[in-house]
C-alpha cells in the first residue's frame, strides 16, 4: 500500500477486508462489518439533545455511525460497531443516574435531616430533626415521648 495518512490507511484496509473501526480516544477497535449493531434505546428522562451534547463533549460521536431519534416517544436508534453502541448506552445510563440523583427527594432530605432511633426495651421511638415521630409499632401517647421513671430503664 502506498504511504497514506493514518485515517485513509484505516479506511482503505477496512474497505478491502470488510472491517469497520472505531477509536474511543484511547483504544482503536477493529471489528468485522457483520458485527455492526443497531439498538433502540429508551431515553427517558433524558432528552435527545442532552444525550447528543454529552456524546459530542466526550468525543464519542462519529459521523460514520448513527445516533438519531427513533419513531415513538423517547427512543433513539444507535448503529455502529459494538464499542460505539456500548459507549452510547453507557453515556445515557450515566446521564439517567445523574438526573435521578439530582431529583431524588430521599437524597435531598438525607442532606438536611437528622434521624435518631431510641430503643427502650421492646419499644422504640424515631426522632426526625429533634421531633418524635409516631410509628405503627409504637404509637406515641398524647404526642409526647414517655420518659423512664425512677427504677425503670
Nutshell version of this structure?
With about 150 residues, the chain is α+β, with helices and mostly antiparallel strands. It is built from four helices and eight strands. The chain has a domain of about 100 residues: Ribosomal Protein S8, Chain: A, domain 1 (2-Layer Sandwich), CATH 3.30.1370.120.
List the main descriptive attributes of the protein structure presented here.
single chain, NolW-like_sf, 34% helix, 153 residues, NolW-like, NolW-like domain-containing protein, 3-stranded antiparallel beta sheet
Describe the structure.
The protein is an alpha+beta fold. It has a domain of 96 residues: Ribosomal Protein S8, Chain: A, domain 1 (2-Layer Sandwich), CATH 3.30.1370. 34% of the residues lie in helices and 27% in strands. The protein contains four helices and eight strands.
Write the layout of secondary structure elements.
Layout: H1 6-17, E1 19-23, E2 28-32, E3 37-42, H2 48-57, E4 66-69, E5 75-80, H3 82-103, H4 105-112, E6 115-120, E7 123-128, E8 131-133
